[in-house]
Each structure stands twice: as C-alpha cells, then as structure tokens.
Amino acid sequence: MYNEFPEYNDDIWHKYDNPIENKKSLNNWNTFPPTTCQVLSSLNSNEFLNFIQKRTGVENIFSDSGLNGAGWHIHNRGGMLNAHLDYNLHPKLGLQRKYNLIIYLEKDWKKEWGGGLAFGVIMIKPQDLEN
Q1: Averaged over 53-80, what is the pLDDT?
Q2: Selection from 37, 51, 50 nearest residue 126 by Cα
Q3: For residues 100 and 63, what is the distance between their CA atoms, to the nearest angstrom?
Q4: Which residue, 36, 86, 87, 123, is most buried by CB atoms nearer than 10 A?
Q5: Residue ranges with strand state E in the chain
Q6: Is 109 exposed, middle or buried (0-12, 13-18, 19+ CB in 10 A)?
Q7: What is the value of pTM for the model shown?
C-alpha cells in the first residue's frame, strides 16, 4: 500500500482545512490501486469481522464498505487532526460507531514526531491475520 499511495500534491485528494483538521483524504473505491483494494476488502470482510468479534467478545460488528470517513488520509508537515468525534451514529447506516482501525504508512517515521499514542486500539500480530 505504501508504494501505491499518491503524492500529497496529487489532484486525486479531497481537501479539509478547518479548525480541527488540515488534511486530505480519498475514499473512492474506483480510484484505489490493486493492493489497496485488496487490503481494504480484507478489512471489510466477514472473516476479519469474525476475527475482531472473537478477540473482543463483541457480537454484531459491521464494517463500513462505503468508507465513510475511511480510506486514505494524508497530512503535510504542519497538518493536523485533533482528537474528535465526527458522529456516533453512521450517517447512512444508522449503526453506532464503536471501533476505528488506523494503519500508518510511513516507513521512516521518527519517534520525536509524536503520534504514537492511541486509545482503544486492538493490537493484532501480523501472523494472527493469516489465521
């Protein structure tokens, strides 16, 4: 996915610039390259949902295959995304939002940049994804 990710100045991005966020995003399935489609499809699959349900003990977990608030996101230097709650009910499905999965694609991330703290994260070992 890292190698498929567009450059920050690519015209493909939707731009956000407001008091709580300065970023760009993309959630259109038709524009994602093959590996990204495969990963996002896997994360939206019944197999992955069953895996999460077994690990958390929470039943009736659904994915958002429409990628509402999901997909690719990018920040430039000085970009920002404050902790916030967009909504607790999905605007189209009417389901309550409970979990977010965030995957960072920065191969040369430096610890001093921060951003390593997260709350409510389920830690998954790569080998567990194969089972």
Answers
A1: 85
A2: 51
A3: 10
A4: 36
A5: 14-18, 21-26, 72-74, 80-81
A6: exposed
A7: 0.74
